[in-house]
Amino acid sequence: MKTTEDAQTARSSVGNCNGCPHRRDLLTEGRCTPGDVCVRAMSGRQIERFFRVNPALADDYAGDSFWERRAIAARYLSQKKLLPLIQDPDEVVRRVLAYRLPIEALDALIEDPDREVRVTVADRLPADRVERLATDPDYLVRQYVARRLAPGRLFRMIRDADRQVRVTVAERLPVESLGLMRDDPEPEVRLKVAERIRFEEVGALLADPDWRVRARLAERLPLEMLEPLREDTDPDVRAIAEDRLVRAEPSQPE
User: Fold this and answer.
1) For the chain, what percent of residues have pLDDT higher than 90?
2) Angle at Cα 46 formed by Cα 41 and Cα 47, nearest 5°?
3) Which residues form the LRV FeS4 cluster domain (predicted)?
4) What CATH number should be reported for the domain holding residue 35?
5) Domain assignment of residue 188, yes or no
6) Nearest-5° angle of CA 139, CA 144, CA 149?
7) How far apart are CA 160 and CA 135, in angstroms?
């Protein structure tokens, strides 16, 4: 049995052809169908199907009062109609713009209040322009910056407030600068440092409080540097160091 809510939903999903500017052409030509392919319906799927069939009409709906109609139309808008929507009050519309605007126009969205908009901008901007987002208040935006910024420019992000951002920095930072991250408060960051740091700069990592960091060093350090790890407090670290040293000993003749 249908409820009142079901009936209201059904009515809202069927656009009213009365007063619709397309009833005399598109409707008769089969390019719109009430309840299925309809720009007047309060249904994103129907609106999407309408613009898929009639993409040239998207420009007519760039200023529509219904946010979802504007957002869907924005996927099909001509480039000249995109720029005026940068100040659109709805973030869903601006998210579409972030994907579709020409690269040279993306600077206008760098300080957009919506995180998803700024993430898309950080993902699309050329590497030499993405640094402007390195101090973004949202960690996810900065994470994208850390993935795309030129390695030589990552120095400014080694003290980022977010652990995962710093992990990414430690993965990409030039090895010459990795020593600056040896004392990071997060073991996940120091583990990445231990995987790449130059042997002569290992320093305090040999006594790192996290056994995983010391184990990684035991796996990659030259044999002549393994002696301290042979006496490590963790049995797994000692075993790795000992195993490498034993395997390196020349075999005794029988």
Assistant:
1) 74
2) 75
3) 16-60
4) 1.25.10.10
5) yes
6) 120
7) 9
